[in-house]
Structure formats: C-alpha cells, structure tokens
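During the no-cost extension, the postdoctoral fellow (Dr. R.K.) reprocessed legacy sequence entries with the updated structure-token encoder. One reprocessed record is reproduced below for audit purposes.
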Amino acid sequence: LKSDITEFLQHCENAIMSIMNKDYESFISLAMRLNGLKEKISAIRTPLSESEGQLKIHKENLIRECEALASLLKRYRDVEERKHYLQQFMDLNSLLEEAEGIVNEEKQKNPTQMQVVDIMNMERSCRDICHASSILSSSSRKDVPFLIMSKDRIDALRKSVINILRSVFDRNVQGNSYNKKLALVLKCYVLLDMVEDIQNYYRENFVV
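Re-encoded structure tokens follow.
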C-alpha cells in the first residue's frame, strides 16, 4: 500500500510538472488567483455563520410565538364553546319555561271543561317540547350539566302533556261526527311522534 501511494504521489508530481512545462503562464496565473483564497473563503464563511446563528434565534422566537398563538386560539375556542352552550341553554330554557307555564295552567282545569283554545295551547307546548328536543339532540356533548337538566325537564313535560291529552282523548274519542278537540289532540300526538302510542292506547281501552 505504501508503495502504491508513493507511486501515485510521484505520478501527481509528474503531472503538475508536465502542466507547468506546457503552459507555465497559465499555471502561474492560476496560482495567483488561488492566492488568498483561504482568506476569501473565511470572509464568506464568517457572515454565513453569523446568519446561521441569527436564523436559529429567529426560529426559536417564531416557535415561541406560534405556541403563544396556539394557546390564544385554544382559549378563543373555549370561550366560543361556552358562548354556544350558553345560547343553547337560553334557547332551551325559554322554550321549556313557556311549555311548563302552559302545562301548569292546563293542569288546573278539569278535562271536561277544556275548550278548543286550551288544546291549541297544548299544541303550542308540544311544539316547544319538539323544538327543545331538537336542540338537545343536535348538541355534540351530552355531559354538560344544563343539558342533562333540560332533558329531565323535557321528559317530565312529555309525561304531563300525555296525561292531559289522554284525559281529553278519553272524553272525545266516542262518536262518529267530526270532533275539533279530538283532531287537535291527535295532532299533538303527531308532533310528539307518538302516533303508535295513541293507536295502541285506543285498541287496548276502546276496541271491544
């Protein structure tokens, strides 16, 4: 290996001497151009190194700013989510308060004394219940306390409404002539998506 290296080195030296003998002026010109090359490279490398350091600092600052922005964005989303649930609560509460007011008022009346206008009020309460149920089902989260509370209120309202409607149904289902009260009661069952329930109730209690 040592012999091979010595031979290669000798070959290189011979090649350099051959170039010098053939075109000495070009060789000298090349040597002159290469003179001070180290200093020139150093002069270029120094600002590049400084720029690299500055870029590193800028990168770190940018990362910190991105992290701060991400934190602010998360806080903004949290606030928007709270606003969304607060609006849902206000909408639900408004609907349920209206429905509860109607139902509580109609509870005080004897079913035999209920007029068409009373059953129309019950229809409005059924619409409120359906709207509230729709808001509740559209919510992406089910563990929010006010949503759980609203569901309990809706369930209680449905039971009260069904009790009142059944009382009116019992007193108006007999007979062959058109009955406005019965029509409105059945419309309420349609709104509540309980048509099958009232059909079964009718078969069990009125069909011989």
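Helices lie at 2-22, 24-34, 37-107, 116-138, 145-172, 180-191, 195-206. Residues 43 and 75 are 49 Å apart (CA to CA). The remaining legacy entries will be reprocessed before the final report is submitted.
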